[in-house]
Amino acid sequence: MKFVDDVFKLYREQLVEHPDGPLEVVLQLFSDHEREDLLRFIEGMSDDELFQMVSLYVVELLKQKLMQEGLLPPQDATPVDPNLH
Questions:
Q1: Dihedral, CA atoms, 29, 1, 11, 55, nearest 10 degrees?
Q2: pLDDT at 61
Q3: CA–CA separation, 35 vs 84, rounded Å?
Q4: How many domains does the chain divide into?
Q5: Which InterPro entries did the record assign (predicted)?
């Protein structure tokens, strides 16, 4: 996806400096956007990109739930901003 390639080029150092670098960068990029902006972004995705996005989102939420229930060690789950739900 061109967007990911562009973000990688612009934020490469931030992405590798901290373990949560990618999460921080993505939250920073999208935090000030309105719902309509995000929907336009999604509408520009291919079917495969949309499938990947939704699949990864659900997997990460399941990991978070497993972690909350004590069924998954915390290091195996990606931290998710509590404001994302």
A1: 60
A2: 93
A3: 13
A4: 2
A5: DUF6154
- Can you give the residue range of the structural domain that contains 63? 46-85
Cβ(6)–Cβ(16) below 8 Å? no
One-letter amino acid for residue 29 of the chain: L
Measured N-to-C along each axis, helices 21-30 and 2-17 cross at an angle, to the nearest 10 degrees, of 130
> Which residues, including other chains, have CB under 8 Å from residue 61's CB and lie 6 or more apart?
80, 85
Predicted TM-score (pTM) of the model is 0.72
Residues 28 and 9 grouped into a single domain: yes
Together in a domain, 79 and 40: no
Average pLDDT over residues 69-80: 73
Calculate mean pLDDT across residues 67-76.
Answer: 83
Domain co-membership, 1 together with 29: yes
Of all residues in the chain, the percent with pLDDT exceeding 90 is: 66
Contact criterion met (CB below 8 Å) for 56 and 2:
no
The DSSP secondary-structure symbol of 1 reads: -
